[in-house]
C-alpha cells in the first residue's frame, strides 16, 4: 500500500519542553495509586515514556519529584522546621503557631485554592494523604513514647484538629473563629493538640 504515512514508532521521548510535565503527570498517577514507597523512579520513567536519566535532569531525586507532584504552595518541612527537636510536652503551641504563621502569610490564597482543588478528587486526596504522613505527621510525632501504632494514632488525631482549624478559619471562615486573634486560637486549640500528643488515650487491647 503506497502513499500512506509510515506508522509512528512508540519509544522513549527525548528531552523536549513537555518532558517535565509528562514526568510529573506520570508521578502523580503512580504516587496516588501506589504511594511513595511503592513507586520507583524507573516506574515513573516507564509510565512517562522517558529515559530514567531525564528524571534526574529535572529533579534532584524521588523526594523532590514527590513534593512537586503534590503542588503544595509551601514546603511543610520549612514550616515545621525544629518542631521535632522540641520535647513532646512543649510541642503543641509550636505546632499551632507554625500553622497560623503559614496561613496568615501571603501563601494563604494558594493554600485555599489547593484545599478546594483537593476536596472531591480521589487522586489529589491520595497524594495529600501520603504527603501528610511522610512530611508533616512524621515530624509532629517524632520521639513520642509508646508503640508506632499509638504514635500514628496520636498523629492522626492531631491532624483532625489542625485540618479542622484550617478549614473552619480560612476556607469556610466560620465566625467567631475566623476573626479570633492568633494568640486566642493558640490558647484554645493548643491544649487539645497537647492532649493528643502526650495525654492519656484509651486503646483497645
TrEMBL record:
Query: Which domain of life, per UniProt?
Result: Bacteria
> Which residues belong to any copy of the HTH tetR-type domain?
17-77
What Gene3D superfamilies does UniProt report for this protein, alphabetically? Answer: Homeodomain-like (1.10.10.60), Tetracycline Repressor, domain 2 (1.10.357.10)
Keyword annotations from UniProtKB, A to Z: DNA-binding
The cross-references to InterPro entries, in alphabetical order and at most eight, read: Homeodomain-like_sf, HTH-type_TetR-like_transc_reg, HTH_TetR, Tet_transcr_reg_TetR-rel_C_sf, TetR_C_16
DNA binding happens at which residues? 40-59
Keyword check for Phosphoprotein, yes or no: no
Per the record, the coiled-coil ranges are none
Full protein name: TetR family transcriptional regulator
Taxonomic source organism: Arthrobacter methylotrophus
Q: What is the lineage of its organism?
A: Bacteria, Bacillati, Actinomycetota, Actinomycetes, Micrococcales
